[in-house]
Amino acid sequence: MDTPLREPTFLILTALAGEPLHGYGLIGEVTALSDGRVTLRPGTLYGALDRLVDARLVEVDREEVVDGRLRRYYRLSPAGDATLSAETERLRRNVEAATARLAARSRATRPISPRVVGGLA
Q: Domain boundaries in the chain?
C-alpha cells in the first residue's frame, strides 16, 4: 500500500503484530491500543479483514470450533509487516517534524525573563 493507512487499518495491523487473533480479540485489542477512541463493529472489522487478506497484508493463521462456532485467527503477513513498518516510520517522521515546529514556536513565544546586568558584588 503506497497511501497512508487509515487509523483503523493501522491499528488492526498493529494488533496482529503481537500475535494471531480472532475477530473479537481484534476488536478488543484495537479498542485497547486506541485508548477507546476506535471501536470496530464486527461488520466493519470483517470487511477490513477481507480487504487486508485480498491485499496479502494479513493471512488466516488457523480455524477452530469453539462452542459450535468457527473461530478464525488472523496473523500479519510478511507484506503486512513491511507495510506496518513503513507506515510507522512515516508517522515517526511526521511526529518529529511536528515536535520540532512546536518546540521552535514555544521558544519564539516564551516571555523573556529579565536578566541581572553587572558583575559579582
A: 7-108
Query: What are the cell numbers at 53?
Result: 487478506
Q: Report the C-alpha gap between 9 and 82 in whole angstroms.
A: 14
- Whether residue 63 contacts residue 19, with contact meaning beta carbons closer than 8 Å, is answered with no
What pLDDT digit, counting tens, does each position of 40-89 carry? 999 999 999 999 999 999 999 999 998 999 999 999 999 999 999 999 99
Quickly name the fold that domain 7-108 has: Arc Repressor Mutant, subunit A (1.10.10)
Cell output for 61: 493463521
Q: Which three cell numbers stand for residue 112?
A: 523573556
Which residues of 1-121 form beta strands (DSSP E)?
21-22, 58-66, 69-76
Q: What is the pTM of this model?
A: 0.83
